[in-house]
Amino acid sequence: xxxxxxxxxxxxxxxxxxxxxxxxxxxxxxxxxxxxxxxxxxxxxxxxxxxxxxxxxxxxxxxxxxxxxxxxxxxxxxxxxxxxxxxxxxxxxxxxxxxxxxxxxxxxxxxxxxxxxxxxxxxxxxxxxxxxxxxxxxxxxxxxxxxxxxxxxxxxxxxxxxxxxxxxxxxxxxxxxxxxxxxxxxxxxxxxxxxxxxxxxxxxxxxxxxxxxxxxxxxxxxxxxxxxxxxxxxxxxxxxxxxxxxxxxxxxxxxxxxxxxxxxxxxxxxxxxxxxxxxxxxxxxxxxxxxxxxxxxxxxxxxxxxxxxxxxxxxxxxxxxxxxxxxxxxxxxxxxxxxxxxxxxxxxxxxxxxxxxxxxxxxxxxxxxxxxxxxxxxxxxxxxxxxxxxxxxxxxxxxxxxxxxxxxxxxxxxxxxxxxxxxxxxxxxxxxxxxxxxxxxxxxx
Length: 445
Description:
Blueprint: H1 16-23, H2 27-41, H3 44-52, H4 64-68, H5 77-90, H6 97-109, H7 116-120, H8 127-141, H9 146-158, H10 166-183, E1 198-201, H11 205-209, H12 211-224, E2 228-229, H13 242-245, H14 248-264, E3 269-272, H15 276-289, E4 298-301, H16 302-311, E5 325-327, H17 340-350, H18 381-386, H19 389-400, E6 405-407, H20 411-423, E7 429-431, H21 433-440
Parallel strand pairs: 1-2, 1-3, 3-4, 5-6, 6-7
Protein backbone atom coordinates (compact mmCIF):
# COMPACT_ATOMS: atom_id res chain seq x y z
CA UNK A 1 0.00 0.00 0.00
CA UNK A 2 3.00 2.30 0.12
CA UNK A 3 6.33 2.53 1.82
CA UNK A 4 7.10 4.63 4.91
CA UNK A 5 8.28 8.14 4.09
CA UNK A 6 11.87 7.28 4.96
CA UNK A 7 11.96 4.60 2.21
CA UNK A 8 10.34 6.53 -0.63
CA UNK A 9 12.39 8.36 -3.22
CA UNK A 10 10.57 11.57 -4.07
CA UNK A 11 12.05 14.56 -5.87
CA UNK A 12 12.79 17.18 -3.24
CA UNK A 13 11.20 20.56 -3.88
CA UNK A 14 13.09 23.38 -2.21
CA UNK A 15 11.03 25.44 0.24
CA UNK A 16 12.61 27.70 2.82
CA UNK A 17 9.88 27.07 5.38
CA UNK A 18 10.32 23.32 5.18
CA UNK A 19 14.09 23.23 4.75
CA UNK A 20 15.05 25.73 7.45
CA UNK A 21 12.41 24.37 9.80
CA UNK A 22 13.78 20.85 9.49
CA UNK A 23 17.34 22.11 9.98
CA UNK A 24 16.38 23.26 13.48
CA UNK A 25 14.91 19.91 14.55
CA UNK A 26 16.37 17.36 16.90
CA UNK A 27 15.07 13.83 17.48
CA UNK A 28 14.23 14.82 21.06
CA UNK A 29 12.10 17.77 19.98
CA UNK A 30 10.27 15.69 17.40
CA UNK A 31 9.45 12.99 19.94
CA UNK A 32 8.25 15.53 22.52
CA UNK A 33 6.00 17.44 20.11
CA UNK A 34 4.55 14.32 18.50
CA UNK A 35 3.61 12.74 21.80
CA UNK A 36 2.23 16.02 23.14
CA UNK A 37 -0.13 16.32 20.15
CA UNK A 38 -1.12 12.64 20.11
CA UNK A 39 -1.65 12.42 23.89
CA UNK A 40 -3.27 15.81 24.52
CA UNK A 41 -4.96 16.91 21.29
CA UNK A 42 -6.33 13.69 19.83
CA UNK A 43 -8.34 10.85 21.29
CA UNK A 44 -10.47 7.87 20.41
CA UNK A 45 -11.17 9.19 16.91
CA UNK A 46 -7.54 9.02 15.81
CA UNK A 47 -6.95 5.66 17.51
CA UNK A 48 -10.00 4.13 15.83
CA UNK A 49 -8.95 5.41 12.40
CA UNK A 50 -5.37 4.19 12.73
CA UNK A 51 -6.39 0.79 14.14
CA UNK A 52 -9.32 0.24 11.78
CA UNK A 53 -7.70 0.87 8.39
CA UNK A 54 -7.07 -2.52 6.74
CA UNK A 55 -5.26 -1.00 3.75
CA UNK A 56 -7.81 -2.41 1.35
CA UNK A 57 -7.12 0.35 -1.17
CA UNK A 58 -10.77 1.17 -1.87
CA UNK A 59 -9.96 4.82 -1.14
CA UNK A 60 -7.38 4.93 -3.95
CA UNK A 61 -9.78 5.40 -6.87
CA UNK A 62 -11.36 8.33 -5.02
CA UNK A 63 -8.15 10.39 -4.98
CA UNK A 64 -7.33 12.77 -7.83
CA UNK A 65 -3.61 12.62 -6.94
CA UNK A 66 -3.60 8.84 -7.31
CA UNK A 67 -5.59 8.85 -10.56
CA UNK A 68 -3.66 11.73 -12.12
CA UNK A 69 -0.25 10.30 -11.27
CA UNK A 70 -0.87 7.07 -13.21
CA UNK A 71 -2.19 5.30 -10.12
CA UNK A 72 1.14 5.54 -8.34
CA UNK A 73 0.43 3.78 -5.01
CA UNK A 74 2.30 6.35 -2.92
CA UNK A 75 -0.53 8.80 -3.68
CA UNK A 76 -3.30 6.52 -2.39
CA UNK A 77 -4.99 8.05 0.69
CA UNK A 78 -4.22 5.03 2.90
CA UNK A 79 -0.60 5.18 1.73
CA UNK A 80 -0.40 8.86 2.68
CA UNK A 81 -1.48 7.93 6.19
CA UNK A 82 1.05 5.08 6.29
CA UNK A 83 3.82 7.43 5.16
CA UNK A 84 3.01 9.96 7.88
CA UNK A 85 0.79 9.55 10.91
CA UNK A 86 0.67 5.76 11.08
CA UNK A 87 4.46 5.47 11.32
CA UNK A 88 4.64 8.33 13.81
CA UNK A 89 2.08 6.67 16.09
CA UNK A 90 3.69 3.26 15.70
CA UNK A 91 7.15 4.60 16.58
CA UNK A 92 5.83 6.91 19.33
CA UNK A 93 7.47 9.92 17.72
CA UNK A 94 10.90 8.38 17.29
CA UNK A 95 11.36 9.54 13.71
CA UNK A 96 14.08 11.56 11.98
CA UNK A 97 14.06 15.18 10.74
CA UNK A 98 14.21 13.76 7.19
CA UNK A 99 11.01 11.86 7.89
CA UNK A 100 9.31 15.05 9.08
CA UNK A 101 10.50 16.90 5.92
CA UNK A 102 8.87 14.33 3.67
CA UNK A 103 5.76 14.03 5.86
CA UNK A 104 5.32 17.82 5.84
CA UNK A 105 5.55 18.09 2.07
CA UNK A 106 3.08 15.25 1.72
CA UNK A 107 0.45 16.49 4.16
CA UNK A 108 0.59 20.12 2.95
CA UNK A 109 0.96 19.63 -0.81
CA UNK A 110 -0.23 16.12 -1.75
CA UNK A 111 -3.64 16.13 -0.05
CA UNK A 112 -6.37 18.74 -0.48
CA UNK A 113 -8.34 17.48 2.56
CA UNK A 114 -11.27 17.10 0.15
CA UNK A 115 -12.70 14.07 1.98
CA UNK A 116 -13.73 12.33 -1.24
CA UNK A 117 -11.83 9.25 -0.08
CA UNK A 118 -13.92 9.04 3.12
CA UNK A 119 -17.01 8.46 0.98
CA UNK A 120 -15.51 5.29 -0.47
CA UNK A 121 -13.84 3.89 2.65
CA UNK A 122 -15.97 0.99 3.99
CA UNK A 123 -15.28 2.27 7.52
CA UNK A 124 -15.70 5.98 6.77
CA UNK A 125 -12.16 6.81 7.84
CA UNK A 126 -11.53 10.55 7.57
CA UNK A 127 -8.08 10.86 6.01
CA UNK A 128 -8.41 14.66 6.01
CA UNK A 129 -8.60 14.65 9.81
CA UNK A 130 -5.40 12.62 9.97
CA UNK A 131 -3.62 14.90 7.52
CA UNK A 132 -4.71 17.89 9.60
CA UNK A 133 -3.29 16.16 12.68
CA UNK A 134 -0.01 15.71 10.81
CA UNK A 135 -0.08 19.39 9.85
CA UNK A 136 -0.66 20.28 13.49
CA UNK A 137 2.48 18.36 14.43
CA UNK A 138 4.44 20.06 11.64
CA UNK A 139 3.20 23.50 12.74
CA UNK A 140 4.32 22.90 16.31
CA UNK A 141 7.68 21.73 15.00
CA UNK A 142 8.03 24.89 12.89
CA UNK A 143 8.04 23.00 9.58
CA UNK A 144 5.48 24.68 7.31
CA UNK A 145 5.72 25.74 3.62
CA UNK A 146 6.84 29.35 3.51
CA UNK A 147 4.07 30.86 1.38
CA UNK A 148 1.17 29.53 3.44
CA UNK A 149 2.99 30.45 6.65
CA UNK A 150 3.38 34.02 5.36
CA UNK A 151 -0.38 34.15 4.84
CA UNK A 152 -0.99 32.92 8.37
CA UNK A 153 1.39 35.62 9.62
CA UNK A 154 -0.68 38.22 7.76
CA UNK A 155 -3.78 36.91 9.54
CA UNK A 156 -2.07 37.25 12.91
CA UNK A 157 -0.90 40.82 12.24
CA UNK A 158 -3.91 42.31 10.45
CA UNK A 159 -6.81 39.85 10.94
CA UNK A 160 -6.94 39.32 7.17
CA UNK A 161 -4.82 37.21 4.86
CA UNK A 162 -3.81 39.99 2.47
CA UNK A 163 -2.36 42.57 4.88
CA UNK A 164 -5.18 44.98 4.02
CA UNK A 165 -4.99 47.83 6.50
CA UNK A 166 -8.13 49.22 8.14
CA UNK A 167 -8.15 52.44 6.13
CA UNK A 168 -7.52 50.51 2.89
CA UNK A 169 -10.50 48.26 3.63
CA UNK A 170 -12.83 51.22 4.20
CA UNK A 171 -11.44 53.06 1.16
CA UNK A 172 -12.17 49.99 -0.98
CA UNK A 173 -15.78 49.86 0.19
CA UNK A 174 -16.24 53.59 -0.49
CA UNK A 175 -14.67 53.11 -3.93
CA UNK A 176 -16.99 50.22 -4.80
CA UNK A 177 -20.01 52.11 -3.47
CA UNK A 178 -19.10 55.09 -5.67
CA UNK A 179 -18.59 52.86 -8.73
CA UNK A 180 -21.87 51.03 -8.19
CA UNK A 181 -23.68 54.31 -7.48
CA UNK A 182 -22.92 55.44 -11.03
CA UNK A 183 -24.92 52.47 -12.28
CA UNK A 184 -27.63 52.28 -9.60
CA UNK A 185 -28.74 55.62 -8.20
CA UNK A 186 -28.57 56.01 -4.42
CA UNK A 187 -26.88 52.62 -3.94
CA UNK A 188 -25.08 52.34 -0.62
CA UNK A 189 -22.79 49.85 1.04
CA UNK A 190 -23.98 50.34 4.62
CA UNK A 191 -21.12 50.30 7.11
CA UNK A 192 -21.53 49.44 10.78
CA UNK A 193 -25.33 49.33 10.60
CA UNK A 194 -26.53 47.90 13.88
CA UNK A 195 -29.39 45.39 13.83
CA UNK A 196 -29.32 44.66 10.10
CA UNK A 197 -30.69 41.36 8.85
CA UNK A 198 -27.39 40.47 7.17
CA UNK A 199 -23.68 41.08 7.73
CA UNK A 200 -21.94 40.36 4.43
CA UNK A 201 -18.42 39.01 4.83
CA UNK A 202 -15.74 38.29 2.24
CA UNK A 203 -12.22 36.85 2.02
CA UNK A 204 -9.04 38.93 1.94
CA UNK A 205 -8.37 38.62 -1.80
CA UNK A 206 -11.64 40.37 -2.67
CA UNK A 207 -10.61 43.92 -1.63
CA UNK A 208 -7.07 43.18 -2.79
CA UNK A 209 -7.67 41.61 -6.22
CA UNK A 210 -11.39 41.10 -6.93
CA UNK A 211 -13.09 44.26 -5.69
CA UNK A 212 -15.66 43.90 -8.48
CA UNK A 213 -17.23 41.05 -6.50
CA UNK A 214 -18.04 43.50 -3.68
CA UNK A 215 -19.52 45.83 -6.30
CA UNK A 216 -21.67 43.02 -7.68
CA UNK A 217 -22.80 41.91 -4.22
CA UNK A 218 -23.87 45.48 -3.44
CA UNK A 219 -25.97 45.63 -6.61
CA UNK A 220 -27.57 42.24 -5.83
CA UNK A 221 -28.33 43.26 -2.23
CA UNK A 222 -29.79 46.55 -3.42
CA UNK A 223 -31.99 44.97 -6.09
CA UNK A 224 -33.25 42.30 -3.69
CA UNK A 225 -34.07 44.85 -1.00
CA UNK A 226 -31.85 43.20 1.60
CA UNK A 227 -31.31 44.95 4.93
CA UNK A 228 -27.53 44.50 5.14
CA UNK A 229 -24.28 45.88 6.40
CA UNK A 230 -20.54 45.35 6.24
CA UNK A 231 -18.15 45.94 9.15
CA UNK A 232 -15.59 48.73 9.06
CA UNK A 233 -13.33 46.96 11.55
CA UNK A 234 -11.17 43.82 11.49
CA UNK A 235 -13.40 40.78 11.50
CA UNK A 236 -14.64 41.29 7.94
CA UNK A 237 -12.31 38.61 6.50
CA UNK A 238 -13.82 35.13 6.86
CA UNK A 239 -10.85 33.29 5.33
CA UNK A 240 -8.44 31.24 7.39
CA UNK A 241 -5.12 29.79 6.25
CA UNK A 242 -4.16 29.21 9.88
CA UNK A 243 -6.74 26.41 9.80
CA UNK A 244 -4.61 24.75 7.13
CA UNK A 245 -1.18 25.42 8.62
CA UNK A 246 -2.17 23.64 11.83
CA UNK A 247 -2.18 26.83 13.90
CA UNK A 248 -5.39 26.07 15.80
CA UNK A 249 -4.85 28.92 18.24
CA UNK A 250 -4.71 31.47 15.42
CA UNK A 251 -7.71 29.87 13.72
CA UNK A 252 -9.74 30.27 16.90
CA UNK A 253 -8.62 33.89 17.29
CA UNK A 254 -9.67 34.72 13.71
CA UNK A 255 -13.10 33.13 14.10
CA UNK A 256 -13.62 34.84 17.46
CA UNK A 257 -12.97 38.20 15.79
CA UNK A 258 -15.37 37.36 12.96
CA UNK A 259 -18.23 36.17 15.18
CA UNK A 260 -17.77 38.95 17.74
CA UNK A 261 -17.96 41.52 14.94
CA UNK A 262 -21.33 40.09 13.88
CA UNK A 263 -22.54 39.99 17.49
CA UNK A 264 -21.38 43.56 18.10
CA UNK A 265 -23.44 44.68 15.12
CA UNK A 266 -26.42 42.64 16.38
CA UNK A 267 -27.08 41.22 12.92
CA UNK A 268 -29.47 38.31 12.45
CA UNK A 269 -27.17 36.29 10.23
CA UNK A 270 -23.87 36.29 8.37
CA UNK A 271 -23.92 35.84 4.60
CA UNK A 272 -20.52 35.06 3.18
CA UNK A 273 -19.25 35.35 -0.36
CA UNK A 274 -18.37 32.49 -2.67
CA UNK A 275 -15.56 30.73 -0.84
CA UNK A 276 -15.33 27.11 0.24
CA UNK A 277 -12.42 27.01 2.67
CA UNK A 278 -13.73 30.08 4.52
CA UNK A 279 -17.09 28.37 4.93
CA UNK A 280 -15.34 25.33 6.38
CA UNK A 281 -13.48 27.54 8.83
CA UNK A 282 -16.54 29.35 10.19
CA UNK A 283 -19.04 26.51 10.01
CA UNK A 284 -17.05 23.39 10.78
CA UNK A 285 -13.67 24.02 12.37
CA UNK A 286 -13.12 27.51 13.77
CA UNK A 287 -16.37 27.46 15.72
CA UNK A 288 -15.44 24.11 17.26
CA UNK A 289 -11.95 25.36 18.14
CA UNK A 290 -13.79 27.95 20.22
CA UNK A 291 -15.93 25.30 21.89
CA UNK A 292 -19.12 25.97 19.93
CA UNK A 293 -20.92 23.07 18.26
CA UNK A 294 -22.47 25.54 15.82
CA UNK A 295 -21.64 29.19 15.02
CA UNK A 296 -23.12 31.64 17.55
CA UNK A 297 -24.67 33.65 14.71
CA UNK A 298 -26.54 31.94 11.89
CA UNK A 299 -24.43 31.93 8.77
CA UNK A 300 -25.00 30.86 5.18
CA UNK A 301 -22.85 30.50 2.10
CA UNK A 302 -23.61 32.64 -0.95
CA UNK A 303 -25.04 29.58 -2.74
CA UNK A 304 -27.74 29.19 -0.12
CA UNK A 305 -28.39 32.95 -0.06
CA UNK A 306 -28.83 33.15 -3.84
CA UNK A 307 -31.16 30.16 -3.68
CA UNK A 308 -33.28 31.92 -1.05
CA UNK A 309 -33.43 35.13 -3.08
CA UNK A 310 -34.57 33.35 -6.24
CA UNK A 311 -37.05 31.16 -4.38
CA UNK A 312 -38.61 34.27 -2.84
CA UNK A 313 -38.64 35.98 -6.26
CA UNK A 314 -36.54 38.84 -4.92
CA UNK A 315 -34.28 38.90 -7.99
CA UNK A 316 -35.74 39.38 -11.46
CA UNK A 317 -33.79 38.42 -14.55
CA UNK A 318 -33.85 40.17 -17.92
CA UNK A 319 -32.71 37.10 -19.82
CA UNK A 320 -30.85 33.90 -19.13
CA UNK A 321 -27.08 33.72 -19.57
CA UNK A 322 -26.74 32.37 -23.11
CA UNK A 323 -23.31 30.70 -23.16
CA UNK A 324 -23.37 26.95 -22.33
CA UNK A 325 -22.10 26.43 -18.78
CA UNK A 326 -20.94 23.67 -16.50
CA UNK A 327 -20.71 23.74 -12.69
CA UNK A 328 -17.72 22.83 -10.56
CA UNK A 329 -18.86 21.55 -7.14
CA UNK A 330 -16.53 22.94 -4.42
CA UNK A 331 -15.67 20.28 -1.85
CA UNK A 332 -16.34 22.34 1.28
CA UNK A 333 -19.85 23.49 0.41
CA UNK A 334 -21.03 20.49 -1.60
CA UNK A 335 -19.46 17.41 -0.01
CA UNK A 336 -19.05 19.35 3.24
CA UNK A 337 -22.47 21.08 3.43
CA UNK A 338 -24.74 19.47 0.84
CA UNK A 339 -25.64 22.57 -1.17
CA UNK A 340 -25.47 20.75 -4.53
CA UNK A 341 -29.16 20.97 -5.41
CA UNK A 342 -29.38 24.61 -4.35
CA UNK A 343 -26.44 25.35 -6.63
CA UNK A 344 -28.17 23.62 -9.55
CA UNK A 345 -31.42 25.47 -8.88
CA UNK A 346 -29.60 28.80 -9.18
CA UNK A 347 -27.65 27.73 -12.28
CA UNK A 348 -30.81 26.52 -14.04
CA UNK A 349 -32.62 29.69 -13.01
CA UNK A 350 -29.95 31.91 -14.53
CA UNK A 351 -28.41 29.94 -17.41
CA UNK A 352 -30.03 28.74 -20.64
CA UNK A 353 -27.80 25.70 -21.18
CA UNK A 354 -26.33 23.73 -18.29
CA UNK A 355 -24.18 20.65 -18.97
CA UNK A 356 -23.06 18.52 -16.04
CA UNK A 357 -19.53 17.29 -15.50
CA UNK A 358 -19.13 13.60 -14.65
CA UNK A 359 -18.83 12.76 -11.81
CA UNK A 360 -20.69 15.59 -10.10
CA UNK A 361 -22.29 16.75 -6.87
CA UNK A 362 -20.62 15.14 -3.81
CA UNK A 363 -18.69 12.81 -6.11
CA UNK A 364 -17.01 15.66 -8.00
CA UNK A 365 -13.23 15.85 -8.17
CA UNK A 366 -11.50 18.57 -6.16
CA UNK A 367 -9.94 21.58 -7.91
CA UNK A 368 -6.58 20.55 -6.33
CA UNK A 369 -6.17 24.08 -4.96
CA UNK A 370 -8.14 23.62 -1.73
CA UNK A 371 -6.92 22.54 1.67
CA UNK A 372 -4.32 25.31 1.55
CA UNK A 373 -2.38 23.56 -1.24
CA UNK A 374 -2.52 26.52 -3.64
CA UNK A 375 -1.40 28.76 -0.79
CA UNK A 376 1.83 26.76 -0.50
CA UNK A 377 2.89 28.81 -3.49
CA UNK A 378 4.91 28.57 -6.72
CA UNK A 379 7.33 25.83 -5.58
CA UNK A 380 4.48 23.34 -5.65
CA UNK A 381 2.42 24.66 -8.57
CA UNK A 382 3.56 22.13 -11.17
CA UNK A 383 2.97 19.21 -8.83
CA UNK A 384 -0.54 20.52 -8.12
CA UNK A 385 -1.46 20.98 -11.78
CA UNK A 386 -0.07 17.62 -12.89
CA UNK A 387 -1.83 15.98 -9.96
CA UNK A 388 -5.23 17.05 -11.23
CA UNK A 389 -5.22 15.71 -14.74
CA UNK A 390 -8.57 14.04 -13.96
CA UNK A 391 -10.16 17.48 -13.49
CA UNK A 392 -8.71 18.58 -16.83
CA UNK A 393 -10.27 15.46 -18.38
CA UNK A 394 -13.63 16.38 -16.81
CA UNK A 395 -13.47 19.88 -18.21
CA UNK A 396 -12.28 18.69 -21.61
CA UNK A 397 -15.21 16.28 -21.84
CA UNK A 398 -17.83 18.98 -21.23
CA UNK A 399 -16.06 21.38 -23.56
CA UNK A 400 -16.53 18.81 -26.33
CA UNK A 401 -20.25 18.96 -25.55
CA UNK A 402 -20.26 22.71 -26.15
CA UNK A 403 -19.49 24.21 -22.73
CA UNK A 404 -17.84 27.64 -22.88
CA UNK A 405 -18.02 28.73 -19.23
CA UNK A 406 -17.23 26.90 -15.99
CA UNK A 407 -19.00 28.29 -12.93
CA UNK A 408 -16.95 27.81 -9.76
CA UNK A 409 -18.53 29.35 -6.63
CA UNK A 410 -15.27 29.36 -4.64
CA UNK A 411 -12.14 31.51 -4.71
CA UNK A 412 -9.60 28.70 -4.28
CA UNK A 413 -11.40 26.68 -6.94
CA UNK A 414 -11.01 29.64 -9.30
CA UNK A 415 -7.27 29.73 -8.63
CA UNK A 416 -6.86 25.99 -9.14
CA UNK A 417 -9.08 25.77 -12.21
CA UNK A 418 -7.41 28.79 -13.83
CA UNK A 419 -4.08 26.96 -13.61
CA UNK A 420 -5.57 23.73 -14.98
CA UNK A 421 -7.34 25.48 -17.87
CA UNK A 422 -4.14 27.30 -18.80
CA UNK A 423 -1.82 24.28 -18.41
CA UNK A 424 -3.99 21.91 -20.43
CA UNK A 425 -5.00 24.57 -23.01
CA UNK A 426 -8.73 24.05 -22.39
CA UNK A 427 -9.87 27.52 -23.43
CA UNK A 428 -12.74 27.78 -20.95
CA UNK A 429 -13.95 30.93 -19.22
CA UNK A 430 -14.33 30.91 -15.43
CA UNK A 431 -17.07 32.76 -13.56
CA UNK A 432 -18.52 33.04 -10.09
CA UNK A 433 -22.29 32.67 -9.70
CA UNK A 434 -22.36 36.31 -8.65
CA UNK A 435 -20.83 37.23 -12.02
CA UNK A 436 -23.70 35.48 -13.81
CA UNK A 437 -26.43 36.90 -11.59
CA UNK A 438 -25.10 40.44 -11.88
CA UNK A 439 -24.89 40.18 -15.67
CA UNK A 440 -28.44 38.93 -16.30
CA UNK A 441 -30.49 40.51 -13.47
CA UNK A 442 -32.81 43.46 -13.69
CA UNK A 443 -31.17 46.39 -11.93
CA UNK A 444 -32.90 49.39 -10.35
CA UNK A 445 -32.67 52.53 -12.48
